Amino acid sequence: MWNLRFSVILFSIAIAAIGAPGRQESNNEIAAFNEKFRQLIAGADHPGMLALWANDGVDLMPGEAPLIGKDAIGEWLKQIEASSPGSKVLREELQFYSIRRSGDWASEWATEHQIVQPRGKPAIEGYGKMALMLHRDSHGAWKIQQEMWNDSPKP
User: Fold this and answer.
1) Is residue 10 part of a domain?
2) Is 15 a member of any domain?
């Protein structure tokens, strides 16, 4: 009897460590999404970044009014581009944590370290934190439903 209980406990622990069927696959999809997100930021690919957003997504940037909807987010990206033409992202590091899934919804948070080189000016180094809420659309693609950034001190 003890061996049977012990076997059931070990089996339960193993299943919990592996996760529910499909969970690891979805977490891999989210990890791939996160890497694409990082690459698009690093390349200052604003059209590519905008494509990651849900049409009714909400972006909560520090010190700014909420950006509600893909059109508003797109306009904000255009303003960023216009205000600093020729800027290059020299480094974009994102470390994601705590991916949590429930059906077609997922949440996670990340730390960020970024170095941007404006044209003709000294490089700007920044650190931040981000929270993302993702939703899988009807085509199976993960999209940003909500994003919130804020600054962090240098570690």
Assistant:
1) no
2) no
